[in-house]
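Archive maintenance. Older records in this collection stored only the sequence; we are now back-filling the structure field for every entry so that each record is complete. The fields below show one back-filled record exactly as it appears after the update. Entries are processed alphabetically, and Theronine dehydrogenase Zn-dependent dehydrogenase is next in the queue.

ARCHIVE ENTRY
Title: Theronine dehydrogenase Zn-dependent dehydrogenase
Organism field: Cellulomonas cellasea DSM 20118
Length field: 342
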Amino acid sequence: MKAVVVHGAGDLRVDDLPDPTPARDEVLVAMEWGGVCGSDLAYWRNARSGTAVLRHPMVLGHEVAGRVVKLGADVTGLEVGRPVTFQPAQLVGDGAMPPRLAGRTNLYPAVRYFGSAAFDPHTDGGFCELRAVRAAQVRPLPEGVSTRRGALAEPLAVAIHAVGRVDVAGRTVLVNGCGPIGALVVAAAKHAGAAQVLAADVAASSLAVARAMGADEVVDVSAGPLPDDVEIVFEASGVPAALGAVLHATAKGGTLVQVGNLPGTEATAVLGELVTREITWMGSYRFSEEIDDAITALADGLDVDPLMTHTFDIDDAEEALRVAADRSTGSSKVMLRLGGDA
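Back-filled structure field:
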């Protein structure tokens, strides 16, 4: 089978790997679609993503969907031909959490994740023609949700988790940074009942995607400041230099949810108004079981189509990553066609 494998910094190959065989508790899935994520780009560019360092070749991809083609001997409740996506996280160990973190499995200390080098051996991802997956991680897609859209259930779950950190119903929300996650936060906030969603970015193409995803107003911050006194702000750019302006845009006593990944190294940022405006600043990391909420939202009509700006075949995976990494291309979510007719 073909698989998109990162071998080192700047070294991405479409390798021919042996077809997998499902274990008793696994299903074999013919993969159809994958979305390129920032962590995929990080492994390709730098052979690392955050603290996870690439030590061996690894199949990329955690935003994926496909169809079941074979069941392991002990698998029930799934059938061949069923379109599916995945909960890409697998807890390592007994899964026990302290009471204060009950249900917050995204904060469990040891998690294997599709396409992650956090463990050695690494956990291969789903940018391949076939993958054996634990049945417990498989999520069936309902009628009307294609595998192309279903591949975006994972990043949508990230956005739904972030929006769920605060009650947005009936309130005005600002999203700073309209890359794929920011645009999905826009859609998730509207889906959760936000009265008005403002979206800010420096790129016209990103603002156009945000508007298509449901933003009521867009703000080009290359031409002017962020709006003032917004009660709930989602910071999705992950740019430390933006934090001062984002804190200033947050209303006194308001809430700032940090969903964009900040660097793990020292960075300069203006943070004084965090104190003087008594702002609540909270982080948002991945998701717990919001993958199920994301699938339901897709079935209910949340439209992710405007996000998917470019499509490439698996053989052109390196070009797909180049386009995803270059904002001048106007790309938002770049999709890989991994197989099938979807």
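Update note: The two ends are 18 Å apart (CA to CA). The first strand starts at residue 2 and ends at 8.
Entry marked complete.
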